Amino acid sequence: MRLLYTVMLITTVLGSCKKYLDEKPDQALSVPDNLDDLQMLLDDVRGINAGQTAPNSSSDEYYLKPADWEALYQFDKDAYVWDPETDAHNDWVTFYRNIFTANTVLENLQKVNREMDATRWDDLKGRALFIRGMCYFQLAQIFSPYYTGSENSVYGLPLRLTSDFNQPVSRSTLKETWDQLISDIQSSIPLLATTNQYKTQPSRWAANALLARIYLLMGNYQKAYDHSDSCLAISSALLNYNQLNASLEYPINRLNSEVIYHMATDVPVTSFYWIARVDPTLYDLFASGDLRKKMFFIDNGDGSYSFRGNYTGEYILFTGLAIDEIYLTRAEAAVRLNKITEALAGMNTLLKARWATGEFHESTITDPETLLKFILQERRKELMFRGLHWFDLRRLNTDPRFQQTLKRNINGQVYSLPPNAPRYVFLIPRKSVDFSNIPQNPR
Questions:
Q1: Do the beta carbons of residue 124 and residue 35 sit within 8 Å?
Q2: Which residue of 2, 182, 315, 379 lies most exposed, with the fewest beta carbons within 10 A?
Q3: Alpha-carbon distance 431 to 436, whole Å?
Q4: Cα atoms in the 13 Å half-sphere on the side-chain side of 197
Q5: Is 278 helix (H, G, I), strand (E, B) or coil?
Q6: How many helices (H) and strands (E) does the chain have?
Q7: How do beta strands 297-299 and 305-307 pair?
Q8: What is the predicted pLDDT for the residue at 9?
Q9: Spatial separation of the C-alpha atoms in residues 344 and 341, rounded to whole Å
Q10: Dihedral sign for Cα atoms in the order 36, 38, 41, 44
């Protein structure tokens, strides 16, 4: 009952009030003080494994009919047209709530004798560190500018490393933010099990996958390659799409063999994906022998298609870590490191599992520039609607070869988002800015 009371408190203060970084909970209330209680906090799948929503809402992977756009919640309407006043309140609350939980676990583990169950104690610490690092990474992709590894004067995030709400809040530098989240994830690796029985729980496998993603976004291709290699050394088994049943509403199962760490968007925020239409230029990238064309899309009967290829087994969007992403990360890192043979071999392995038997012909591209463009196109196709395209837009817009201007058209009104626009960084919720007196993101 003591734990139940604690969980209810955290949910009430940080969930329904939604004012983390704004209000202080009652410091006298009880907290969990044993491994069972602490594990239950981390086992809250609906909360801890909630993924980001803003990067999907603002992506150019889909379009909406004007009437459907008008019917959206205000945030989704604003995010769709990249309104400069859009504030991603739900993502801010979700991830800082989970950071609070992770900090609570880390602090209260110190009150539990590790020698009573050292393996479990270490695992819980590793899980909490991974979760905190993952949350700061997600927040950085939404509320901070793109990071290359050296920005010391650009604002990052408010770094909460304690559950004590009395400590004042300020915005760290972008470098401090990334140093902290990388440190958390790296520190989790020796504490975690190599794999986990439940893919909703962190593991060394997941930590290496996350670091591979992070270093690719930073442009540190050697580390992205190394962590991808470490990840795939644990398991590199791909789904054979020839064995999927295209007649099912959602052909790809939840927690399938490719899933490394499960995360998914929250249901109420993503309900508009029932009416989202896949961007035609994206759909047209898939050839007839590519089984993803059958597994990923539903024909709406009006010349448009909806997406159904979620690794959740339902319409809720998958935003976690999976083996297919790591193949693509390693291939991109490899070609950028001039490891052409390795890059090509990885891509052929992945695509062979995606094409109909007898239809796939191995790529023989040897020109680095052509191969890089090929990998980036396959990355866009394979990782649709996972939030990763928004991350890729941010990083690739720093390279003139890959810059894009995004456009929407609603009843003749054209909205655009040019490369490196300040609107690639969402506003911090105004209540947090006002209460904590932290600087707002520029417009």
A1: yes
A2: 2
A3: 8
A4: 2
A5: strand
A6: 18, 10
A7: antiparallel
A8: 44
A9: 5
A10: negative
pLDDT digits (tens, 9 = 90+) for 397-406: 999 999 999 9
| Residue type present at position 79 | A
Q: Is 63 helix (H, G, I), strand (E, B) or coil?
A: strand
Contacts of 310 (CB under 8 A, 6+ apart): 250, 252, 316, 317, 318, 385
pTM above 0.90, yes or no: yes
pLDDT tens-digit map of 329-369: 999 999 999 999 999 999 999 999 999 999 999 999 999 99
Amino acid 227: pLDDT:
99
The type of residue at 203 is S
In angstroms, what CA-CA distances link 386 with 1, 134, 204, 321, 389?
37, 15, 22, 9, 7
Average pLDDT score over residue span 277-282 = 97
Q: Is 133 exposed, middle or buried (0-12, 13-18, 19+ CB in 10 A)?
A: buried
Between the alpha carbon of residue 295 and those of residues 248, 250, 251, 286, 431, the distances in Å are 9, 8, 6, 11, 43
Condensed to tens digits (0 to 9), the pLDDT of residues 22-33 reads 444 444 446 688
Q: What angle do CA 168, 172, 174 make, to 5 degrees?
A: 165
Q: Is the dihedral of CA 33, 39, 43, 48 positive or negative?
A: positive
Q: How far apart are CA 219 and CA 32, in angstroms?
A: 41
Judged against a pLDDT cut of 60, whether residue 270 lies above it is answered with no
Structure tokens of 129? 């560190």
User: ∠ CA(429), CA(430), CA(435), 5° rounding?
Assistant: 110
Residue 31's pLDDT is: 66
